[in-house]
Design the sequence.
């Protein structure tokens, strides 16, 4: 089992930046591939970004490529999502996720991640 706690959400003007953090506890953090999802009101939860267990190559949704960066610090048991050039359409609850299999984040039709955080609200106004 792993517990995930997101932080860093808030209210930001369009064009601004936020850095989300997800602190993990429980099982060894490095055993998990990590991801970020988001869900806007009335919409399905969608994939945002994912990173492999040891870092390195990452994957991003087309809607955030070039603007968002996922990273992790396994010594701190934390994964980050740096969000730049924010747009109103980025407004959503952002969820941190953990799974032992990286491929579920990037393969179409794959199952949902095994573990989720409680979410943190990001609101972008124009």
Sequence:
């Amino acid at each position: 089992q792993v517990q995930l706690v997101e932080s860093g959400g808030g209210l930001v003007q369009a064009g601004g930046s936020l850095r989300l953090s997800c602190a993990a506890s429980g099982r060894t953090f490095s055993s998990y591939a990590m991801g970020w999802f988001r869900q806007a009101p009335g919409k399905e939860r969608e994939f945002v970004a994912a990173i492999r267990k040891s870092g390195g190559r990452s994957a991003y949704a087309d809607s955030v490529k070039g603007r968002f960066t996922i990273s992790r610090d396994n010594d701190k048991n934390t994964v980050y999502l740096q969000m730049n050039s924010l747009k109103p359409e980025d407004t959503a609850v952002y969820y941190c996720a953990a799974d032992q299999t990286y491929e579920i984040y990037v393969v179409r039709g794959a199952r949902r991640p095994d573990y989720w955080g409680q979410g943190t609200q990001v609101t972008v106004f124009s």
